[in-house]
UniProtKB/TrEMBL annotation:
Organism: Candidatus Fimiplasma intestinipullorum
Keyword Nucleotidyltransferase: no
Reported function: Required for the formation of a threonylcarbamoyl group on adenosine at position 37 (t(6)A37) in tRNAs that read codons beginning with adenine. Is involved in the transfer of the threonylcarbamoyl moiety of threonylcarbamoyl-AMP (TC-AMP) to the N6 group of A37, together with TsaE and TsaB. TsaD likely plays a direct catalytic role in this reaction.
The protein's name: tRNA N6-adenosine threonylcarbamoyltransferase
Stretches assigned to the Gcp-like domain: 24-308
Keywords from the UniProt entry: Acyltransferase, Cytoplasm, Iron, Metal-binding, Transferase, tRNA processing
Family statement: Belongs to the KAE1 / TsaD family.
GO biological process, one term: tRNA threonylcarbamoyladenosine modification
Cofactor binding mode and count: Binds 1 Fe(2+) ion per subunit.
A GO MF label: tRNA N(6)-L-threonylcarbamoyladenine synthase activity
Length: 335
């Protein structure tokens, strides 16, 4: 029985998970720093790395106890190599390299976005060729995969990532960090009342959200200048209608053009209820022969289970790293 331990520390979660060859999670422990960073309105890199140093040993110990295993039982040690905050990545990487060296286990360096994509394997085995919509605070990409661990980025954002746009709109609306969940909750109570521009409405697979973000900022400023009041629920719904609509439309078009068998949604914004609902409806009405996979809410945000899932694929393909592996905060998914 293959057993892989994975460590994730790319941003503000310290996480360790253990998986077996049947994609069964034997342990999944996450220590979140969100309450600390909320005080500053966003992640503070130096604080994040210090908290990782404090938490990594505790989280590792809890995962081993949860799995009822000994470190000698493992077949490989996996870790997020990038992208992410360099200080945060460094903590997880040093822990993984120490374990690999001390227990003489193979080391597997995993791309963070590959982890998000392979989170879908924890609930619904991926089928190729497939199209992945990656949506998070730092990424908005369409990724075509014709076989396991082979990524072709066919579309990306020219400016803001969708998660970043959510956070900035939330700030304009006076909502707390992180902005995505707050916007999503408000939008459920609102109506599409405000006329916002549809960004990069073309035949490419690329995205742009800075214009939409600026339109929301200008709308808020002009409304207040006139002494009027913005209905925040309606603003949230109007923003989601436009932003999510672009994501869904381009994903469906790319999937039809590339004749894929499956669409997978990945990343923190995959937790957005409107995106999940809209994608489901679009697939059912436009391309019912294509399977849709969206990970459960618990593995949309950063966690080590997704890194373990991707590492299991890499272990089977014998894609190992040596102890010279270093942090790669800006690493390309296709690299």
């Amino acid at each position: 029985m293959t057993l892989i331990l994975a460590i994730e520390s790319s941003c503000d979660e310290t996480a360790v998970a253990i998986i077996n060859e049947n994609h069964e999670l034997l342990a999944n422990v996450v220590s979140s720093q969100i309450d600390t960073h909320r005080l500053y309105g966003g992640v503070v890199p130096e604080i994040a790395s210090r908290l990782h140093v404090e938490n990594i040993g505790v989280v590792l110990e809890q995962a081993i106890e949860q799995a009822k295993l000994d470190l000698h039982d493992l077949d490989a040690i996996a870790v997020t190599k990038g992208p992410g905050l360099v200080g945060s990545l460094h903590v997880g990487l040093q822990a993984a390299k120490t374990l690999a060296l001390a227990y003489r286990k193979p080391l597997i360096g995993v791309h963070h976005i590959a982890g998000h994509i392979y989170a879908n394997n924890l609930v619904d085995r991926m089928e190729y060729p497939c199209m992945a919509l990656v949506v998070s605070g730092g990424h908005t990409e369409l990724v075509y995969m014709d076989r396991p661990m082979h990524f072709e980025v066919i579309g990306t954002t020219y400016d803001d990532a969708i998660g970043e746009a959510f956070d900035k709109v939330a700030r304009v609306a006076g909502l707390p960090y992180p902005g995505g969940p707050a916007i999503d909750r408000l939008a459920q109570k609102g109506e599409h009342r405000y006329d916002l521009p549809r960004p990069l409405h073309d035949k490419t697979y690329n995205f742009s959200f800075s214009g939409l973000k600026s339109a929301v900022i200008n709308l808020a400023h002009n409304t207040r200048q006139r002494g009027e009041t913005l209905v925040m629920e309606d603003l949230a719904r109007s923003f989601e209608d436009v932003a999510i609509g672009v994501l869904v439309d381009k994903t469906i078009q790319a999937s039809l053009d590339y004749k894929v068998k499956q669409i997978v949604v990945a990343g923190g914004v995959a937790a957005n209820s409107y995106l999940r609902e809209s994608m489901q409806k679009a697939v059912e009405s436009t391309c019912p022969d294509i399977r849709l996979s969206i990970p459960p809410l618990w593995c949309c945000t950063d966690n080590a289970a997704m890194i373990a899932s991707a590492a299991l694929e890499m272990y089977q393909l014998k894609q190992f790293s040596d102890l010279s592996l270093s942090c790669k905060p800006m690493i390309d998914l296709e690299g």
